UniProtKB/TrEMBL annotation:
Highest taxon in the source lineage: Eukaryota
Protein name: Homeobox prospero protein
Length: 156
């Protein structure tokens, strides 16, 4: 054994409350730490509920994080669809008439359009749109400069 009988008697005679109260966790401070614990538990509960609500919000248009402009413009592509139960033939016919499964949406002219795009194609689409937009702005700016120079020289 590491302790002899005298060592155990010395440990029993120590007044732990005296030493613990010096660092602020003695018997007199228990109420304070209990209140601190309650406050922390309530705070973490509120933050946890806000985080959970933000991730699984039933209001798809109202979450706590802002949405980028590109996502707002293309939000109609990601509309939520309610799928019918497999045995319900009437609902299934109505579902197919409205457009059916994602990826087999029938356009206004009766042509089958593919609407499921992976994220890589989506990013390429956004980049090409931005590039085309910037190219258009540059072209208009250059055309206006040429027109201005010609007008300064006297041509109309």
């Amino acid at each position: 054994m590491f302790f002899n009988a005298a060592g155990i008697e010395n440990l029993k005679s120590l007044n732990y409350n005296k030493y613990l109260s010096r660092v602020g966790i003695g018997r007199d401070d228990w109420h304070f730490w209990k209140q601190i614990g309650k406050a922390l538990a309530c705070t973490y509960t509120i933050f946890g509920l806000a985080w959970l609500y933000n991730e699984t919000s039933p209001l798809g248009w109202w979450t706590l994080k802002p949405r980028p402009k590109e996502e707002k413009e293309l939000a109609h592509l990601y509309e939520r669809r309610e799928f019918p139960y497999p045995g319900d033939t009437e609902a299934m016919e109505e579902f197919v008439a409205k457009g059916g499964m994602i990826g087999t949406t029938i356009g206004p002219k009766g042509v089958v359009e593919t609407t499921d795009k992976d994220s890589y194609n989506y990013q390429k689409d956004l980049q090409s749109k931005k590039f085309d937009q910037e190219a258009g702005k540059l072209w208009i700016r250059m055309r206006n400069e040429v027109i201005q120079e010609l007008q300064e020289k006297g041509f109309e």
